[in-house]
Amino acid sequence: MIAKFKGTYGSGIEPLTYAGQNYMVVDRSMIPEILQILRNEEQFDYCVDITAVHYPKREKQFDVVWVLYSYSRNERIRVKTQILDGESIPSSVPIWVAANWLEREVFDMFGIRFDGHPDMKRILLPEGWKGYPLRKDYGILQQDNEWVQINLGIESGQ
Predict the structure, then answer these.
(1) pTM of the entire predicted model
(2) Cβ contact 106:81 at 8 Å
């Protein structure tokens, strides 16, 4: 499958394996098409997770990662792409409805926006919260003290 993609898309796809798990690093511009093909032609019908990883010292600071599973193949694959801080990525909700809350979580924790998402808003933290807790530049004890004071009427316990 990866060889087929590599033959079709060339340098835009880098197939890799780590700890027995297949994954591919895909150019950001090709993500919607590759995800659609994985679902429709390769039978990866379950979007297990969408997450991100923050590398603050890298130019493209974020990896966005889709973890996909094919019931018929009994196979899992990861698809990764790199994006700049502040750059958005197309939503995969039209491909897998289950991506809705997964993308909202990535937005809430990392600040990555998904273009075309039907309801792009925070899912875990309250609206108005400042910052994105899973970024490496967000301190481990940091919280939005202003939000806590205004909405809870207390001083931060930290």
Answers:
(1) 0.88
(2) no
